[in-house]
Design brief:
92 residues, mainly alpha, 3 helices, 0% strand
Length: 92
Amino acid sequence: MPIIIIVLVLSLGIGVVLSRKYENRRLIIWGLITMLSIAPFFSWIVAILVGVSVGDGFAAVAVMWLMVPILFLIGVGMVGAGVYKKVTGENL
């Protein structure tokens, strides 16, 4: 579990650094970070905590099945909004 937390914190740090460096691509960067890092790792941490507190591994799997697609779709929406803003030139 500590390795997952370290990876999650490092990916959040990379997201902060990249979003400060490329301000006009902030939504795209955070969308990709959300899809590739936050969705699986944060969902895994929450699912393990739920599974341990409930005492059932199936509850952990159910939480993962719910959280990963929702967070992934949020990331897809962020990337789509970033690409749309980049193509149309809104807020430049």
